[in-house]
Design brief:
Shape: globular
Structural class: alpha+beta
Order of helices and strands: HEEEEEHH
Number of helices: 3
Strand order of the largest sheet: 4-3-2-1-5
Number of strands: 5
């Protein structure tokens, strides 16, 4: 966990009781990712190496183009990506309460003077100005 209380993907795996299938976001994605597996790590097994980076193994994630986890179904467009920097704090967990901000909100935030990083993104105070 970093000084802001953020977890990297490997720490999220431990928070998920060593189970795959947890969801995450990166602030530039217009999608929600589901962790499929961490290379070389069987589900339920501990990572090798020292925390928080654990030798930084690659992470395979399925990106779903949906506005929320609850909106994901067999018809949802998706693609699988490989993440090479799972030890960074760019990828933050989301749960079933998460709703993707509108594209207009995302663009407005991206073009504002305020820094739009993953920490700010998950602090939804900026959405209060949208109403």
């Amino acid at each position: 966990m970093d000084s802001n209380g953020l977890l990297n993907i490997y720490e999220q795996y431990y928070e998920a009781n060593l189970k795959y299938g947890f969801y995450l976001r990166e602030h530039t994605w217009q999608s929600i990712g589901k962790v499929l597996f961490i290379a070389g790590v069987q589900e339920g097994k501990r990572l090798t190496g020292n925390p928080p980076y654990f030798t930084n193994p690659k992470v395979f994630v399925k990106l779903y183009y949906a506005n929320s986890i609850n909106a994901i179904n067999e018809n949802t467009k998706s693609r699988t990506i490989r993440i090479n920097d799972g030890g960074t704090y760019r990828y933050q967990p989301v749960d079933s309460n998460f709703i993707m901000p509108s594209k207009e909100t995302f663009e407005k935030k991206k073009n504002s003077k305020k820094i739009f990083d993953s920490y700010d993104y998950f602090n939804d105070d900026f959405l209060k100005d949208e109403k």
